């Protein structure tokens, strides 16, 4: 587990070494929350924050490619029994403005899902141009 990405030293140029995982709904105060089938949709947003560096230069209109996997489980499934729902690759264009203080990035819409059970979203950042 990486607590701070600024201290991470990759062992290769394959950025798939860094995997972001989000489980929704999550546990709050030791209670596993549940989604209601009455929920109409789930919206996922990815906010990219890039720290300015003199070594790496920003490329206008840079592409961010994401490998996204989504799984689910039902109340009848074991805690580690996840079923694959979808796996896809998506590309988003980074729109950044560079100020003297820092680089500011816009929020990217990652997914919009229209049927809810408990889902595991596993997002692997595997390539940035």
Automatic annotation (TrEMBL):
Q: Entry's InterPro entries?
A: WLS_GOLD (IPR053936), Wntless (IPR009551)
**Which Pfam families does its entry note?**
WLS_GOLD
Boundaries of every Wntless GOLD domain copy: 2-103
Q: Which GO terms describe its biological process?
A: intracellular protein transport; Wnt protein secretion; Wnt signaling pathway
Coiled-coil region(s)? none
Cellular component GO terms, alphabetically? Answer: endomembrane system; organelle membrane
GO terms of molecular function: Wnt-protein binding
Q: Mind telling me what this protein is named?
A: Aminopeptidase N
Say which species the protein is native to. Heligmosomoides polygyrus
């Amino acid at each position: 587990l990486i607590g701070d990405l600024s201290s991470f030293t990759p062992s290769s140029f394959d950025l798939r070494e860094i995997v972001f995982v989000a489980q929704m709904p999550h546990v709050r105060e030791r209670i596993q929350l549940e989604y209601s089938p009455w929920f109409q949709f789930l919206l996922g947003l990815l906010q990219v924050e890039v720290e300015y560096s003199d070594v790496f230069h920003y490329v206008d209109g840079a592409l961010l490619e994401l490998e996204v996997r989504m799984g689910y489980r039902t109340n009848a499934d074991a805690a580690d029994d996840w079923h694959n729902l979808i796996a896809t690759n998506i590309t988003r264009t980074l729109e950044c403005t560079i100020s003297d203080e820092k680089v500011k990035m816009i929020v990217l819409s990652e997914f919009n899902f229209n049927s809810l059970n408990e889902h595991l979203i596993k997002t692997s950042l595997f390539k940035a141009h």
